[in-house]
Amino acid sequence: MSELLQVHNLTVHFATEDGLVEAVDSVSFSVRPREILGVVGESGSGKSVTAHALLRLIRPPGRIVRGEIRFEGADLLALPEEQMGEVRGARIALVFQSPRTALNPVLTVGGQIARLYELHQHVSRAEAWRRTIEMLTLVGIAEPARRARQYAHQLSGGMCQRVMIAMAIASSPRLLIADEPTTGLDVSIAAQILDLLRGLGRRTGASIVLITHDLGLVAEACDRVAVMHAGQLVEIADVRTLFKRPLHPYTQALVRSIPRIDREVAMEPIPGAVPSLLAPAPGCRYADRCARVLPVCRLERPMLRAAEVNHEVACHAVEVDSGAAVR
Amino acid sequence: MALLSVEGLVKHFPLGGARAWLDRLGGQAPRSVRAVDGVSFAVAPGETLGLVGESGCGKSTVARSILRLVEPTAGRVIFGDVDLTALSAEPLRRQRRNLQMVFQDPTASLNPRLSVGRTVQEPLQRHTTLGAGERRARVAEVLAQVGLGAELVDRYPHELSGGQRQRVNIARAIATRPRFVVLDEPTSALDVSIRVRAILLLDELRSTLGMTYLFISHDLASVKYLAHRVAVMYLGTIVEEASTAELFTRPLHPYTRALLSAVPVPDPDRRHARIVLAGEVPSPIDILGGCRLRGRCPLAQPVCAEPVTLRAVAPAHRVACHLV
Lengths: 327, 324
Description:
Radius of gyration of chain B: 21 Å
Helix content of chain B: 25-40%
Distance between the termini of chain B: 29 Å
Shape of chain A: globular
Largest sheet of chain A: 8 strands, mixed
Number of helices of chain A: 12
Distance between the termini of chain A: 35 Å
Number of strands of chain B: 12
Order of helices and strands of chain A: EEEHEEHEHHHHHEHEHEEHHEEH
Order of helices and strands of chain B: EHEEHEEHEHHHEHEHEEHHEE
Shape of chain B: globular
Oligomer: heterodimer
Structural class of chain B: alpha/beta
Strand content of chain A: 15-25%
Number of strands of chain A: 12
Radius of gyration of chain A: 21 Å
Helix content of chain A: 25-40%
């Protein structure tokens, strides 16, 4: 199957007063057509930076140091800025975490969506408005004609997120990147937004990259999952495998740490904290938190390798288990 | 006997400005936001009562009314044998060493100009007669109890991580050795792994220091771990109350069932049926008579327009629903 998006060795650094922060370190993954790929990790794992880098939205002092992002045949990192502008929003769209602050407070929400149609699809004002109402209906906003004339502050958080999603899909993107789309929403509203995203993915055939720290969301929505820790991608697998047979010690700890309402299990917090990304030591960045740490882990960064079909993991201890030679 | 009981608590915020004028022009009394509309519960010594519900259900207003950070419109809050709602300022201040609160936002609730040591010392200065040396000793002891190193005493909030800031907030709340602590979404702003540690810490502190908690949260998984009993609020009233085990295994109110079914479960094999409530929580200004959920409830019947009260359906299990 040909991939919709292929990311290869993506590396993002931020130059700060204290030194270089290596926020994303040689991350490689791909997104298949029509799939929902979850990207999970704690704060500081680099999942949001990765998402923004896909759209080249990293601003100074941040910089994409190297890597390749192939999307629909082109390397996005090599495109001139104006062509990138056409990809952004039209082919790849982003749904932000805090919908209310991402919306323009002095324009009506309908006006903001209609402007997209006028700009990108060069339709008349009346036609743009008609499509806006249609789109608001599609994302499940009751009384769309009235809501379209309101401002962001007049809408609830859940409705603002629906408007954001309407804006993101207005131009029928092939890839939708949703960065913590339900964080800050009440559970029942979050469930509605998740259903909406899933339904839209199915209906439009777009792929979705869902960035979240909530493993529950991942289990309910995603086809495959990539786990990030301290700027490195440590494991990627289909969703069942990741929950049933996680291989990386970090993924195992993450799965064990979540409080859950569906069964009686003790919560075990993940030991230690996400390490500083300021000039991190070579080797695996999980080494200081890992119960299975080997001498080689502190010397050499483990590479992402296929452990089985559709399951890749970056861990020296797992390689030893599987009988691979280790220096 | 209960350590804290809340009886018929009501808090209405009158509408001001143009809306009040329009109401008066229309010949009626100005309307109010009925944030809390008749809430009663009791918390036994050593117990953690979870108070859950979605944004706008009034759970934080209940918390603030208990500490009289807002003045209740009606109802009583009895702490031990003292009616807190009847106290004047000075006796109320004296009670505050026994009743403390941990707020949701660990950053906004700390004064950025106070060091960790001064932050934790402040309630001791205000509410106790401890001397300077004793206060320093207590600060060191409390910081150790919440798992913060002594070297952090002179640090300022901006030098701390989110998890450390919330530990400072907890340290400040328990510094005066309160008997009762209101936890208002103390874990909601924290990252997954830090949240788990905060929950375990809070539970350990409660049992070692003999405290009693009111734990307010919309995070049902945290509530399940920390609370002994749970009360579910919807639109200013309690709709169900039961032991934690009972509530999570045998929820009876349609709202509780919908809420529980909406929590994503980290198990890809479990495809549970979700009970979907139509739309969003309605305005707390114009509340329908009868059951407040009936406009959104998938099971609503004509009888739901009749007034509904919280009644016992099993020992220690109360539900406000005509259909249960």
